[in-house]
Write a structure and sequence with these properties.
10-stranded mixed sheet, UDP N-Acetylglucosamine Acyltransferase, domain 1, about 220 residues, globular, about 5% helix, mainly beta
């Protein structure tokens, strides 16, 4: 199996290396990896991409910039999906993943706008990040056939951690060095150096730099000793 993986990795880079927007050194591609428009994908050095999918809609048009940027030393585990959706040629969604980001199995990223994941962020198993949804105004039309919302940018700060099964929706900024507990649903901004849990996610702890310890918060997210 290791021999087969080495052969696949070499062939993938030979076939795709000329067409990537940019491709760093010491990159490892594993079998069953699918990238439909590699010319719009920038990959840093030391990256590991396991079985997964990067899909940029054919309607998307880009001038001089990659649609997907993956920094150095990033690892995207088995079953990852990065999907950029365009309803028309004016949509230009983008995904930027910083350096040293680690994503566990089966993460899903779907954007119509912009997603920025900071350096050293971590994503647990089955994390889902989506910046758009279907509208449902007309009860006579199946929801899946109705319009999609435009999509609002999402930012995940450097050094943050999203636990297993976390859901993040559009228009949200998660501050640096924050922890989102397993199964939380993030629908609004989370301040830096916070711990948030629940549905919807609410801040239960914040780091106090004066006392240099994590302190519990009240229902308004204010630190209380």
């Amino acid at each position: 199996m290791k021999f087969f993986n080495r052969i696949y990795n070499s062939l993938f880079k030979v076939l795709r290396g000329r067409t990537f927007y940019s491709l760093g050194t010491h990159v490892r591609f594993y079998p069953a990896l699918s990238i439909n428009r590699p010319e719009l994908v920038s990959i840093g050095s030391g990256v590991r991409l396991y079985r997964g999918r990067i899909h940029v809609d054919d309607k998307c048009r880009y001038l001089g910039e990659p649609a997907v940027k993956i920094g150095d030393n990033v690892s995207l585990a088995e079953g990852f999906r990065i999907i950029l959706c365009c309803l028309n040629e004016h949509d230009n969604p983008s995904v930027s993943i910083g350096n040293d980001v680690i994503a566990s199995e089966n993460i899903t990223i779907m954007v119509r706008s912009k997603l920025d994941i900071g350096d050293y962020a971590g994503l647990g198993n089955d994390v889902s990040i989506t910046d758009f949804t279907h509208t449902y105004e007309d009860p006579d039309v199946p929801i899946m056939l109705q319009k999609m919302t435009q999509g609002d940018p999402i930012k995940i700060g450097k050094g943050s951690w999203l636990g297993m099964h976390v859901r993040v929706f559009g228009g949200v900024e998660i501050g640096e060095h924050s922890v989102i507990g397993a199964n939380a649903v993030v629908t609004h901004d989370i301040p830096a150096y916070s711990v948030a849990v629940g549905v919807p996610a609410r801040v239960v702890k914040r780091y106090d730099f004066d006392s240099r310890q994590w302190v519990k918060c009240d229902s308004d997210g204010r630190g209380v000793l």
